[in-house]
Amino acid sequence: MKILVINPGSTSTKIAVFEDKELIFELKLDHTKDPEFQKEFSKPGNVMDQYNYRFKCVAQALKENDIIQLDAIVGRGGMLPPVTSGTYLINEKMIDDLKNRPQANHASNLGAPIAFELAKKFNITQSFIVDPVTTDEIELKHKVTGIPGIQRYAGWHALNQKAVSRKYAESVGKKYEDLNLIVAHLGGGFSFGAHKKGRTINVTNALAGEGPMSPERSGQVPAQGLIDLCFSGKYTKEEVMNKVLGGGGLFAHLGTKDVQELEKKYDTLNKQDKDVVDEMIAGVSRSVCSMIPDFEGEEIDQIILTGGVAYWKLLTDKIKQDVFATKIGVTVYPGEKELEALRDAAIRVLTDEENAKEY
After folding, report:
1. Are residues 77 and 113 in the same domain?
2. Same domain, 282 and 156
3. What's the CATH code of the domain at 164?
4. What is this structure's pTM?
5. Residue 356 falls within a domain, yes or no?
6. What does the pLDDT profile of the chain (359 residues) look like in tens digits?
């Protein structure tokens, strides 16, 4: 089975083609190096405006790598209305919701439209998404906030969190559905999940300003200060949103989102800049521990740290030290396993191990 997977990010599109589980080729289409992309899309706007550009980039990459036949195409799931975990058939309704009624303006919204159109090009009758960003298994009580009418919602790295949870379960000879896990995805944005016997009963939302600051997101900030900022007359709604979702966190303080760069020069940072980084790390530990009450006294089997930032050993060692008193073990799976997770879901459907869901 030849499977194409597509994972659009904010400034890149990752694609890979597999023959069953064997990688044929993998590419990261870095759009920041293309003057056309910079000219057209450097300013904040609707991510769907990038559809034609990104589709052409993916199609050209397949052509250059002599891919003329595929059995399945899987795109990263976008900001759909809340759905349960699983593999979904892409249909016109899904495309319409992503184009006209997305829950948020996010690059993942492009995964399904690109996969759907490429499926037509390759004469494939079915294309899929898997565990979209808005996968929602949160217990209703955990959606309550202190302001009636405002509810918490799911916006998290469901695909990678579910994938590393299954990987950990396999490593200890158990099923994901038999374990209680706290998973922290640490990338450009951070999300945290309480995985209780196969369902993620609560998450810290990576898109709604929850949790700690991250390389490019503000995380939770004092509500009064944010309200004052909104009504100061200095910023538009879009500009404030950018401070929360793309221009906050380390970037706002230090002018960089590159954690690898910070890792290299961490020891030479001045005290103020080092305090910013240290507070981000401590915030991760706090958010991990904040998931403990969601298990209502049940034993928690493991804490899992994943995502690109988890390659930084100083950071993961500090988190292990911070949570030592909980007596819960910590496993680190650095990087994003999203391409493999998309591939594996397609294989499960194509081999009848799992039924694809209708959207």
Report:
1. yes
2. yes
3. 3.30.420.40
4. 0.88
5. no
6. 999 999 998 788 999 999 999 999 999 998 988 888 888 887 778 999 999 999 999 999 999 999 999 999 999 999 999 999 999 999 999 999 999 999 888 899 999 999 999 999 999 988 999 999 899 999 999 999 999 999 999 989 999 999 999 999 999 999 999 999 999 999 999 999 999 999 999 999 988 899 999 999 999 999 999 999 999 999 999 899 999 988 999 999 999 999 999 999 999 999 999 999 999 999 999 999 999 999 999 999 999 999 999 999 999 999 999 999 999 999 999 998 889 999 999 999 999 999 999 99
Task: Give the count of beta carbons closer than 10 Å to the beta carbon of residue 174.
Answer: 12
Q: Tell me the Ramachandran region of residue 20: left when phi exceeds 0, alpha when psi lies from -120 to 50, beta otherwise.
A: left
Do residues 223 and 272 both lie within one domain? yes
**How many distinct structural domains can be found in the chain?**
2
Alpha-carbon gap, residue 339 to 158, rounded angstroms:
13
For residue 306 the two structure tokens come to: 């994943």
**Parent domain of 199:** 140-328
106 and 121 both lie in a single domain: yes
| Type of residue at 27 | L
